[in-house]
Write a structure and sequence with these properties.
The complex is a heterotrimer of chains A (about 240), B (about 575) and C (about 375). Chain A is built from 8 helices and 1 strand. Chain A has one domain: Four Helix Bundle (Hemerythrin (Met), subunit A) (Up-down Bundle), CATH 1.20.120. Chain B is built from 17 helices and 1 strand. Chain B is globular and about 80 Å long. Chain B starts with 15 loop residues before the first helix and ends with a helix. The relative contact order of chain B is 0.12. Chain C is built from 9 helices and 12 strands. In chain C, a hairpin with a 4-residue loop joins strand 2 and strand 3. Chain C is elongated, with a radius of gyration of 28 Å. The chains are: A mainly alpha (about 240), B mainly alpha (about 575), C alpha+beta (about 375). Chains A and B meet through strand 1, helix 1 and helix 6 of A and helix 7, helix 8, helix 9 and strand 1 of B. Strand 1 of chain A pairs antiparallel with strand 1 of chain B, so a sheet runs across the interface. The complex binds heme-A (2 copies), dinuclear copper ion and copper (II) ion.
Chain lengths: ~240, ~575, ~375
């Protein structure tokens, strides 16, 4: 059923791993692998988005009032930062294709800086929530939420269900926290990619695909934020 | 098409002893840091076997305890921990992992003619994640155990149990990443690394099965991973997701859990289906009947398998119409399994059947899985499930499919590929006897449990002194488990024995077709010295001419003995 | 002898069981049919086509659309038929008739608390009339439980934070198993009891006086009545069981506790054992006895103690006025007013201390069940 020919030359491309026949196969395999992984990531966040949707649907008012305590400006700023980092990532990949090493490193460095900025802003956001006791648990600051509730809806007193408000903050910390973990992992990956370029490693300078893979991952992380931002920060007023 | 002159691709004349992957490095580090898919498969073989035996000891304790209506040696709390560890180990550390990580790892590259999996380092990392998860779970068991059952239902697991639930869940979570990375690796490999000429419809059915399993792994595992993590957060930080007291939905957990865990049962059975296809075709010496149907039914099971999770929740207070839809799809998902069963049966027809040990296990599989699958219909039909759910009927059902199904297929595959993996032959006679012993022991263990469940014996019960009428069946079941336990222990001995004393295996002891048999036993590190080119699908057997050959041989030998007279 | 006694089917005692059993046996037939077909075919083929047998192997087929369609469509159609009948039975199970008698069930780790409309309550036992539809409204006070009566073929989860329902009509008088069939923690397997199906007339009598025939009340008798009505008897019997110690003849004896200490069972001890049973746990038992603090009046406790004093003596069966006089407490009126007993389930719940670190106070909804029950 099979025959052996002196099949494949084994092009001795320095970036080629032993298990592959040629660069084309290697690149395609990398891409399939990355996309498969991203599909799996979509399911990972998907479960959380599902939970979010369910509870937001059920507890619209409470979620709306709870969300008033989030700082839209910080969120919007972070969105901009991440979008910009996506742009620099694209530029880095393009530079990699053109084999412009210095440019690649420059763009990647800017991307890392953006990611760090994002985290710093996130840190301030989180710590202000902690200072206000806006995290689920026995110390949950019900007064603050109540105050916001009165402030938010013209008809004055609204009964806010504090459990649901806690649920909101639980989801907020859970989902943005998981996203932040992805940013941190991304920073690690970006830095090691910069190191590879810096050291002129075979695996990156002869082949732009590894850089592109990091790009795919980074865009995915941005994309998640693009969903998180409106869902948590920009809720329309329920009636 | 098979030309007799086919070169044995990985077989450099007279020297395969030196280049075998087993001999390529003898230090411990050469194993623990290996990128070789075959060595990683062996690491998995050793570790999953270890966990399997741990889980079996727990099963033994469960059975022993249930011989008396008021228990024998254990406290209720201990009993609960024992059956929970049994379930957790068997599902998360053994059955979900075993066939993909051992045989999938070892044979996918060999079967499709590749030098390795796409991402060898990721593959090694997956083993480390698995071990980290496994060790955390073990620490959890030692530090106090977990008493939630393998299903971790909230709010018991998140708010009430004061056992090591968090630790064990983190272990399962980390182990889950090993599943995801394995799935990613397989999908990339199968898509892009097939040898020239190995088209999709020439792939061995085992590879098809592994492909559909990988789909389930990458789509399902992340969901359960995040769900279990949320339970941990709920325990540690009182994050109010599933707890009704904080506005959470107590049934939501079940939805998310079964969204993974129903597909997970197909993660357990599809690889087994793949093995069975290989065994039946090879030992019937016949092309598999309805190749396309068998291949696509795997994909159909994987797809439909994502739409039936609610059949575990018929009485959980989910809406009536949800139940109805889930029940309907449960009946639909049974059809592709039926297709497989009938195609295998028909494959044997007009074959030239060799009843070697792997085939004995395969036949056992066919008979037992049929019963196991059909009893799934009692549970899939909502009306009948209301009475049977969470009784021993369910316990019997899933042991029929998981032990009588997947475990027998696993053992069949282990016997089939043992010569290839280790380069040694085991004793055929003992292996066949053991297969029959297991078949008998298995049915004696689990058939009485169907009756128990029908009579209303609830599962996860330590005591039943208020219903002594159940005892007779429990005793039967325990007797059977002793036989079955022997059946599981024996291979550990005779296979290990073969490693040292068994005769050397030839490259192709079964006269099988398929690329994995065209390289040496055990294969060299690079699998194939040269990548083969594939000209036809693997199942090009010809039972009729083999039979003629047999007859001619027979005649010749009869003539010989006739001459003597 | 038990070992040679193999029951083959559960008792069939509700309106659903006949239809259920037909479905079950049809499925069983289907299973047998396919198992026999597949097994026979496999076995015949492997023996007939065993290597070396002299049978024709010529013209083998490898693909046949007609066969494939047959074994796709036949299981599909059979499956759909089973689906139809299974679902229609289920729909019946989920639509209780309007005139069903309502009974309320509260599950908690690890007991069932049942309340009848007129305020009669029982633990781990459910009395129902034969021939009348009964609808159970159920809620859990802590984790998931499941209310399961095999003989009736009905089962439903009992969920914290939401009501679930179950209905049936018992068709045969008798006592049947009641199980908790959703894993709920350490004593899950003991969270059960029995369902007593009674002829309607007997049931009415039972309901009218909590199951006891009316008799002149001594204090011990009143205690006995409370003992039965509150449900002490569902756990405490004439002998020690795994569920609870016997109370026969314990008065005045030295009791040993699980922490190794001991005490003589005097009046004070009785009082605390009933109201706050977890102050001392009798050796060999766990925290299963409900906390009756806030539930029982002092009067009840005295009556109960009086009853426990005579338990195990011949007087227990026919309490005499003598006992009454010697008890040193003025006789209690015979009209034991049900409302002087436990007031409502909310109290019952909140009285439950956080005995284990994870145990929690029940949700307020439980009170609503009880309140509704009382109004009837
Ligand atoms: C390997 C694992 C495996 C497999 C393959 C299956 C296969 C199936 N299972 Fe099973 N199941 C489990 C493992 C598995 N199950 C486990 C572990 C549990 C319990 C989990 C827990 O609670 O702990 C469970 C529980 C379970 C339940 C929930 C029971 C309950 O808790 O109330 C249900 C309900 O629908 C169900 C149904 C099915 C069905 C319809 C199939 C089908 O896929 C079967 C299809 C196969 C056939 C039907 C046989 C071959 C067909 C023929 C011979 C032709 C004739 C066919 C027809 C007429 C249709 N299973
Ligand atoms: C791969 C999966 C797998 C496998 C292989 C098995 C194998 C076995 N299982 Fe398992 N089982 C599950 C998966 C599996 N099980 C799952 C998922 C559950 C649900 C858990 C839950 O409810 O959460 C379960 C639950 C379960 C129960 C129900 C417990 C309960 O609800 O209370 C029982 C009871 O009989 C049982 C028995 C057995 C037996 C006898 C075997 C046999 O096949 C094993 C044969 C081996 C032996 C018998 C070992 C011999 C052991 C010794 C010689 C040492 C004995 C030591 C002493 C007696 C001290 N299993
Ligand atoms: Cu309550 Cu199980
Ligand atoms: Cu399922």
């Amino acid at each position: 059923m099979s025959a052996n020919t002196d099949s494949l030359h084994h092009s001795h491309d320095p970036g080629l791993k032993h298990q592959y026949e040629d660069m084309a196969q290697q690149s395609e395999t990398y891409l399939v692998g990355m996309w498969t992984f991203l599909v799996s990531e979509v399911m990972f966040f998907g479960a959380l988005f599902f939970i979010y949707t369910l509870y937001r649907w059920n507890y619209q008012q409470d979620f709306y009032i709870a969300h008033e305590h989030l700082d839209v400006r910080m969120g919007a700023f972070n969105t901009t930062v991440l979008l910009f980092s996506s742009f620099t990532m694209v530029m880095a990949v393009q530079a990699a294709q053109l084999k412009k090493r210095m440019n690649v490193m420059g763009y990647l460095a800017v991307t890392v800086l953006c990611a760090l900025t994002f985290l710093v802003v996130k840190f301030f956001e989180y710590s202000s929530k902690f200072a206000d006791h806006l995290y689920p648990g026995v110390n949950f600051n019900t007064d603050a939420v109540k105050a916001f509730g009165e402030h938010a809806l013209e008809n004055g007193h609204v009964a806010v269900n504090m459990n649901h408000a806690q649920l909101f903050y639980g989801l907020y910390f859970g989902m943005t926290g998981l996203h932040a973990v992805h940013i941190i992992v991304g920073i690690g990956i970006l830095i090691s990619l910069i190191r590879l370029w810096f050291n002129k490693a075979d695996s990156v300078i002869h082949d732009y695909v590894p850089t592109e893979l990091v790009g795919l991952y980074w865009h995915f992380v941005d994309l998640v934020w693009i969903f998180l931002f409106p869902l948590f920060y920009l809720m329309p007023k329920p009636h | 098409m098979s030309s007799p002159t086919t070169a044995k691709a990985g077989l450099p004349p007279e020297q395969h002893e030196e280049v075998s992957y087993l001999n390529d490095g003898h230090t411990i580090a050469s194993w623990l840091l290996t990128g070789d898919h075959k060595r990683i498969a062996m690491l998995y073989l050793i570790s999953t076997t270890f966990f399997f035996f741990l889980g079996s000891v727990a099963a033994g304790l469960v059975r022993f305890e249930l011989t008396s209506p008021a228990g024998v040696v254990l406290e209720s709390e201990t009993y609960n921990k024992v059956f929970s560890s049994h379930g957790v180990i068997m599902v998360f550390l053994f059955l979900v992992v075993a066939i993909p990580a051992i045989f999938g790892n070892f044979f996918i590259p060999l079967m499709i003619g590749a030098r390795d999996l796409a991402f060898p380092r990721l593959n090694l990392a997956s083993w480390y994640m698995y071990m980290t998860g496994g060790i955390l779970i073990m620490i959890g068991f030692i530090a106090g155990g977990v008493d939630t059952g393998w299903t971790f239902y909230t709010p018991y697991s998140s708010m009430y149990s004061n056992t090591q639930v968090s630790l064990v869940l983190v272990g399962v979570f980390i182990g889950g990443f090993s599943s995801i990375t394995t799935g990613v690796n397989f999908i990339a490999t199968i898509h892009k690394m097939r040898a020239p000429g190995m088209t999709w419809f020439r792939l061995p059915l085992f590879v098809w099965a592994m492909y559909s399993t990988s789909l389930l792994l990458i789509l399902g595992t992340p969901v359960v991973a995040i769900t279990l993590l949320l339970v941990v957060f709920e325990r540690l930080f009182k994050l109010p997701i599933f707890s009704p007291e904080l506005g959470g939905d107590p049934v939501l957990f079940q939805h998310l859990f079964w969204f993974y865990s129903h597909p997970a049962v197909y993660i357990m059975i599809l690889p087994a289906f793949g093995i069975i296809s290989e065994l039946i075709a090879n030992f019937s010496r016949k092309r598999i009947f309805g190749y396309h149907f068998v291949a696509f039914s795997s994909i159909a099971i994987a797809g439909l398998g994502f739409l039936v999770w609610g059949h575990h929740m018929f009485i959980s207070s989910q809406a009536m119409y949800e139940s109805v839809v889930f029940s309907l799809i449960s009946f639909l998902v049974a059809v592709p399994s039926a297709i497989k069963i009938f195609n295998w049966t028909t494959t044997i027809y007009k074959g030239n059947v060799v009843m070697a040990a792997p085939m004995v296990y395969a036949v056992g599989f066919l008979l037992i899985f049929t019963v196991g699958g059909l009893t799934g219909l009692f549970l899939g039909s909502i009306g009948t499930d209301v009475h049977l759910t969470a009784t021993y009927f369910v316990v019997a059902h899933f042991h029929y499919v998981m032990v009588g199904g997947t475990m027998l297929a696993f053992l069949g595959g282990l016997h089939y590929w043992w010569p290839k993996m280790t380069g040694r032959m085991y004793s055929e006679g003992i292996a066949i006897a053991n297969g029959i012993l297991m078949f008998v022991g298995f049915n004696l263990t689990f058939f009485p449990q169907f009756i128990l469940g029908w009579l209303g014996m609830p599962r996860r019960y330590h005591y039943y002194y208020f219903a002594p009428e159940f005892q007779a069946y429990h005793i039967m079941s325990t007797l059977g488990a002793s036989v079955l336990g022997l059946g599981f222990a024996m291979p550990a001995f005779y296979l290990t024995y073969s490693l040292f004393k068994g005769p050397k295996a030839p490259a192709n002891p079964w006269n099988a077709h398929g690329l994995e048999w065209e390289t040496a036993s055990p294969p060299p590190t690079t699998n194939f010295l040269e990548i083969p080119i594939v000209l036809d699908e693997v199942y090009d057997f010809d039972p009729a001419s083999e039979h003629e050959q047999d007859m001619a041989d027979l005649e010749a030998s009869e003539n010989k003995s006739g001459d003597k007279h | 002898m038990q070992f040679f006694n193999f029951p083959l089917s559960p008792p069939s005692a509700s309106n659903f069981s006949a239809e259920y059993d037909v479905l079950f046996y049809v499925l069983l037939g289907l299973t047998l049919f396919f198992t026999v077909i597949v097994s026979l075919a496999v076995l015949i083929f492997i023996f007939r086509y065993k290597k070396g047998t002299k049978v024709s192997r010529s013209r083998p087929i490898y693909e046949n659309l007609f066969l494939e369609l047959t074994w796709t469509i036949v299981p599909l159609v059979l499956g759909l038929i089973m689906f139809y009948f299974g679902t229609s039975l289920y729909v019946k199970m989920r639509t209780p008739p309007k005139d069903a008698t309502e009974i309320y069930v509260i599950g908690k780790q690890w007991m069932w608390h049942v309340e009848h409309g007129n305020g009669v309550r029982e633990n781990n036992t459910l009395h129902v009339p034969v021939g009348k539809p009964v609808k159970l409204t159920m809620i859990s006070q802590d984790v998931l439980h499941a209310f399961y009566i095999p003989a009736f073929r009905v089962q439903e989860h009992v969920v914290p934070g939401r009501y679930t329902q179950l209905w049936f009509t018992a068709t045969k008088a008798g006592e049947y198993h009641l199980f908790c069939n959703m894993y709920c923690g350490t004593q899950h397997s003991e969270m059960g009891g029995k369902v007593v199906a009674m002829e309607p007339k007997e049931f009415q009598e039972w309901l009218a006086n909590g199951g006891q025939s009316v008799a002149p009340m001594t204090m011990a008798q009143a205690g006995a009545k409370t003992f039965n009505k509150v449900g002490c008897n569902s756990c405490h019997g004439s002998e020690d069981t795994l569920r609870a110690p016997s109370l026969y003849g314990i008065f005045g004896k030295r009791r040993v506790f699980s922490d190794g200490t001991s005490a003589v069972a005097d009046d004070e001890y009785m009082r605390s054992s009933i109201l706050r049973p977890y102050d001392h746990i009798t050796s060999g038992y766990g925290q299963t006895m409900p906390v009756y603090e806030g539930q029982l009046t002092e009067e009840d406790v005295l009556n109960l103690t009086a009853y426990i004093k005579v338990l195990g003596t011949p007087a227990a069966t026919v309490p005499t006025s003598n006992i009454n006089r010697n008890s040193g407490v003025s006789a209690v009126s015979g009209n034991n007013n049900p409302t002087s007993l436990s007031t409502n389930a909310l109290q019952y719940n909140t009285a439950d201390p956080d005995a284990s670190p994870t145990r929690r106070i029940g949700s307020p909804a439980v009170g609503a069940v009880a309140a509704e029950g009382k109004n009837r």
